[in-house]
Amino acid sequence: MSATTHGTTPYYYVPSESRHPVMAAIGLFFVILGAGQWINGHDWGKYSLALGLVWWLSVLFQWFRDAARESEGGLYGRKIDLSYRWSMSWFIFSEVMFFGAFFTALWWARSHSIPALGSLDNQMLWPDFKAVWPSMAAGATGSPAGIVEPFQTVGPFWLPTINTALLLSSGVTLTIAHHALRADQRGKTIGFMWLTVLLGFVFLCVQGYEYYHLYTELNLKLSSGIYGSTFFMLTGFHGLHVFIGMLMLFFITLRLQKGHFTAERHFGFEGAAWYWHFVDVVWLALYVLVYWM
User: Fold this and answer.
1) Could you tell me if 34 and 50 are in contact, meaning their C-beta atoms sit under 8 angstroms apart?
2) Confidence (pTM)
3) 217: closest CA among 153, 155, 164, 163?
4) pLDDT tens for residues 175-227?
5) Which of 12, 173, 236, 289 counts the most CB atoms within 10 A of its CB?
């Protein structure tokens, strides 16, 4: 986080007891309870889910507001800054492992599962099975048992390529904003931050249109065999991370407009930038491995 030091900054700031952790846990309890009941056919579950989300988001808003006030009040010194940097680094590392699991699933299906199903050992089970990737018709890779509807695959042109250009451009505008902040050019920083947020929003709109196109015209769905499930798990979770990153940048921009952060101390900005650049890198891997290969 960032702070303008007022008075003496403590060696390591220890906040007083807070209600926020237990209140956030209560909100998450209602989220999990409601989601579980809703998907099992209990209509009241959606109200519990909505209540839990509103409760949880309200707690997060208050929690982050208190952290920003502590930061701007000069309570965060070098040790706190270092702990935030380590925390964000480990968080991004956990996200690398998260996406690594799905990329590994994609690799395993293509390199091991499908060739194994097409081997001589399985010819008696599915004599007409074709061990090719990806499948475009029931009875081939998509559905050896003939239970998956025929679908068409998606290539890199043009929507995925447009989205690649959008994300790469957003990485450039964010870097320009960062350099402007370090040069103490707040107006320039805010302008390029808003441009970065806009590019992220347009990316999500393009992806939403792509999903509509896939469902309505290509019949490609989450249930379209291993191809459909890995495609939507990877692109869907990445889209969720873009949305989260866009919100982070949005609130950082609002803080910049309120005068928060300085040229020397602005880890709140840097942490959001780290996350956004991570999202960019994941998309590049996804763009090559999912859309091109």
Assistant:
1) yes
2) 0.85
3) 153
4) 999 999 999 999 999 999 999 999 999 999 999 999 999 999 888 888 888 88
5) 173
